[in-house]
Amino acid sequence: MDQAMHFNQSMEENGTTVSRDLTAQTSWVQSLEDTYFRVRPGFSGAFVGTGCFGIIGNILILIVFTKMGFSNTIHMSYSALAVSDLCCVLASMVYGNTAMDVVRRSVNEQTSYRLSNMFGGLPHLCFSRVTALLTAWISLERCLCVKFPTRVKLMITSTVTKVVILAIFLLGCLPMVFVYIAYRFEWQPDPRTNSSTLNLVYDERLGVAETFLILLGVVYPVVSWVTVTFCTSVLVLQLRQSYKWRKSNTQGAEVSPAGNHAVTANQSQQQKSTKENHVTKVVVMVAVVFLLCSVPVSANILADLIIPEYSIDGTLRYLNLINGMINVLFTELNSSLNVVVFSVSGQKFRSVLFEILSKGPCKK
């Protein structure tokens, strides 16, 4: 009898513990939901504000590089990066507006969420991956130019650069088309209003959409991040070696009794090295900004892979949504700050930009 009483008491304690755990979990989920709805308008406003700056900045980048010309292949890559950044910023602003319940007045919550993803979230995701792949290409191109300067000029021509840029845009945007195929509008009965409403429905039977989402969510970010990290490390080491070489040559020129021809050749080589280093510094700065802004995205992808409940349908749904808005904001910052990077690091870009801003684009 004592054992039975002890067993019943143990069961009651276990039931109380489970009940407390469920209550604590429900309370925590509710607090995440409340936090999400409180911070969502602030994030939406940040998307629009940052987007306005990004639109102006990327348009200025396109104007400046068009005026500088495209004889240098890296100018083509920078211009393509500005186009991708511009599309990414515009998609972020659309995502921000739909997140502010602009369309929810005429459709239900589920359709509003899907419209937000379809016209804002998904294009933003695709063009952010295009930006990442273009950044990886720019870093790789510059890394090859530093290591193999004579061979690369013959390999990476204007035609090759155009083909690579076109391929990157196709690889980034093609998944968006296949995901769109899985969406369709259909009329569904609404018992509350005793009428039919037009809803956006996702067809889960088309598994091809999930396959392409894996490309956007895992493959493209990992490939671009690894490439940019490796190439940036090589470029930083090259800059340090170049700095030591210039310093030793400058000291040698001060004490060397060599003739004018030797001094002139040395100065010409130093000027060429300085010019190449300026280009490398710009690429490194663009890559560093990309890496810093991609840290939240990488952490979110890792959490999505190792935590089953961290998904749009799991118990950590609202935490996933909050971190998703943080990812969008950081990606938008990456797409908006390049005009600042070019202005600070690129001397020629800065002079052309100041000339355009002082005289105006319509004045000669």
TrEMBL record:
It comes from the Eukaryota. Residues 252-273 are annotated as: Disordered. InterPro entries: 7TM_GPCR_serpentine_rcpt_Srw (IPR019427), GPCR-Ligand_Int (IPR052954), GPCR_Rhodpsn (IPR000276), GPCR_Rhodpsn_7TM (IPR017452). GO terms for molecular function: G protein-coupled peptide receptor activity. The chain crosses the membrane at residues 43-66, 78-98, 160-183, 212-237, 282-302, 322-344. It is found in: Membrane. GO terms for cellular component: membrane. Keywords: Membrane, Transmembrane, Transmembrane helix. Its main location: membrane. This is G-protein coupled receptors family 1 profile domain-containing protein.
